[in-house]
Amino acid sequence: MLAYTYVEPGIFELQNKPKPVLLDSRDAIVRVTLSSICTSDLHIKHGSVPKAVPGITIGHEMVGVVEKIGSSVSSVLPGDRVTVNVETFCGNCFFCRHGWVNNCTDPNGGWALGCRIDGGQAEYVRVPYADQGLNRIPDSVTDEQALFVGDILATGYWAAQISEIKPEDTVLLIGAGPTGICTLQCVLLRSPRQVIVCEKDPRRLQFIRQHYPQILAAEPEHLPEVLRQRCPYGGADVVLEAAGSQDSFRMAWQYARPNAVVTVVALYDEPQILPLPEMYGKNLIFKTGGVDGCNCAETLRLIENGKIDTTPLITHTYPLGKIAAAYELFENRRDGVIKVAIQTALS
Ligand SMILES: [Zn+2]
Ligand SMILES: [Zn+2]
């Protein structure tokens, strides 16, 4: 089968590999129908994910059809259309029992697919702990609608969930990239009084203004003035930082009002400074981390009921055979790309 492979830092290559087989009774083999490229894949390519194992198949955002299941798998059957979770988790350990599946203590726990074990930018993928890692896609939900459920939409849902958003709140979201937009949709589900999105890329700003006219979208240079007009208590009640750029962490705590919740969704390339003397007395509550991706059934229900729609994020579609061109486009942010869907042309 075709599999897009991490050869060494800087080099990904479409290779021919044997089809994966069941290695454990809790595994499933999924025939991938649609996958996507995530910024984390670029981090692997650039050598900034030390855990990534050369030789593995890339890809951790995908949907497909269950081909085979191990004898202990009970939640899906061959033929089921499923989302695949970015995180592998056992469902039984201390962390899993608390819903903190990102810290599952299994050797493959956390982000393994497409990083430490073969992922889904391929025709087939082996999914460990299939009862946890796969969710059936409702018949009325398309592959395109479900594509981001296991990764960036899971992240957005988790970020909104931990941010303690209340109806009277002004929520400031920094960054309107793909994860930012998924986060925005999940923030809106909680119906805060107002939402302000800060983004410096004019095309992303335009996307927000076009698709979410009820949202106030502002460039970073205009944000202080917008907040002065809109927030009577010296900043936003809740800040979600999904940009991960040079200044965005500083903006996140600076533009929060005293006693605000500041949720850091972004992943940074470099350490950030937390200048505690400067923020002394501001009494902020920081929430940070990687997604606990265990709400996929709920997000699929929200998609089925028309409450979430991430299909406008798919700006481009490529066949698996042309995945290198898709990477080139995504990496260089050409042609207004937000997300690329990779189609596996089997039936
Ligand atoms: Zn990802
Ligand atoms: Zn676990």
Please explain how this structure is put together.
The protein is of the alpha/beta class. The chain has two domains: 202 residues, Quinone Oxidoreductase, Chain A, domain 1, CATH 3.90.180.10; 133 residues, Rossmann fold (3-Layer(aba) Sandwich). It is 25% helix and 26% strand. It is built from twelve helices and 17 strands. The strands form four sheets. Strands 3, 4, 5, 8, 9, 16 and 17 form a seven-stranded mixed beta sheet that branches. A hairpin with a 2-residue loop joins strand 1 and strand 2. Helix 5 packs across helix 6. The model has no long low-confidence stretch (mean pLDDT 96). One zinc ion binds next to helix 2.
Compose a concise summary of this entry.
The protein is α/β, with parallel strands linked by helices and 347 residues long. Helices cover 25% and strands 26% of the residues.
**CATH C-level category of the largest domain:** Alpha Beta
**What is the global morphology?**
globular
Oligomer: single chain
Based on CA atoms alone, the radius of gyration comes out at 20 Å
- Average the pLDDT over all residues and give the rounded result: 96
Per the CATH scheme, the topology name of the largest domain is Quinone Oxidoreductase, Chain A, domain 1
Number of strands: 17
**CATH-assigned homologous superfamily of the largest domain:** Medium-chain alcohol dehydrogenases, catalytic domain
The ligands found in this model are: zinc ion
The helicity comes to: 25-40%
Largest sheet: 7 strands, mixed
The CATH architecture of the largest domain can be given as Alpha-Beta Complex
Number of DSSP helices?
12
Strand content: 25-35%
Structural class: alpha/beta
Total number of distinct structural domains: 2
Protein name: Alcohol dehydrogenase
Domain Alcohol dehydrogenase-like N-terminal: 26-130
Cofactor: Zn(2+)
Organism: Neglectibacter timonensis
